[in-house]
Task: inverse folding
């Protein structure tokens, strides 16, 4: 861990902690990641620091092997239901909402690709708030988190990764991102280490 400092103009950016996605990663430690991300969100809000909640509602249109596999599985489920409709469709509006542990005030971003900057107003909202550094948390480490980190780095933000507030369904890839990729994009640390470096919360 090499976390050195947290700017006073920092924002928390939480990636894709939605009901359906958290449930999908249940066997991969999503509950622990949500709990740590919630700790961060509470700490940021207590200090009046921006919290950006990013929600995925689609995916990039390009063909992928994983996309083809998902489409085949959905077609099979539709056929098995005997109704001619996707049995998951009725779940989508609620299932794609942010989990209650994270829900609250802050910046809202809806994305249709892995990264939170592409064709969204995240950069503009962060700039209006005077943000120079972001702390990243969420799911999945190698997809939404890493894609957002790469774009943040290219936009000139200092990037910090709260490594215990994220997870992935491929633990080897998760470890590779944390140990190899992330040090080239920013700094890594635990939730506790991030909170310890935040400015003091105002006293009443």
Result:
């Amino acid at each position: 861990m090499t976390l050195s400092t947290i700017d006073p103009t920092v924002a928390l950016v939480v990636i894709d902690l939605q009901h359906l996605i958290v449930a999908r990663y249940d066997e991969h430690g999503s509950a622990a990641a949500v709990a740590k991300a919630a700790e961060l969100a509470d700490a940021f809000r207590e200090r009046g620091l921006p919290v950006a909640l990013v929600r995925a509602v689609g995916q990039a249109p390009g063909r992928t092997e994983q996309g083809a596999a998902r489409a085949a599985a959905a077609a099979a489920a539709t056929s098995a239901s005997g109704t001619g409709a996707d049995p998951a469709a009725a779940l989508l509006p609620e299932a794609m909402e942010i989990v209650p542990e994270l829900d609250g005030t802050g910046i809202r971003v809806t994305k249709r690709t892995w990264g939170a900057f592409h064709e969204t107003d995240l950069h503009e909202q962060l700039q209006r708030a005077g943000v120079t550094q972001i702390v990243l948390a969420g799911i999945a480490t190698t997809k939404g988190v890493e894609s957002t980190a790469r774009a943040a780095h290219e936009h000139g933000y200092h990037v910090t990764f709260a490594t215990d507030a994220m997870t992935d369904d491929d633990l080897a890839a998760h470890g590779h991102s944390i140990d190899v990729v992330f040090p080239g994009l920013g700094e890594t640390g635990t939730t506790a280490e991030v909170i310890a470096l935040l400015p003091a919360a105002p006293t009443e």
Notes: The two ends are 34 Å apart (CA to CA).
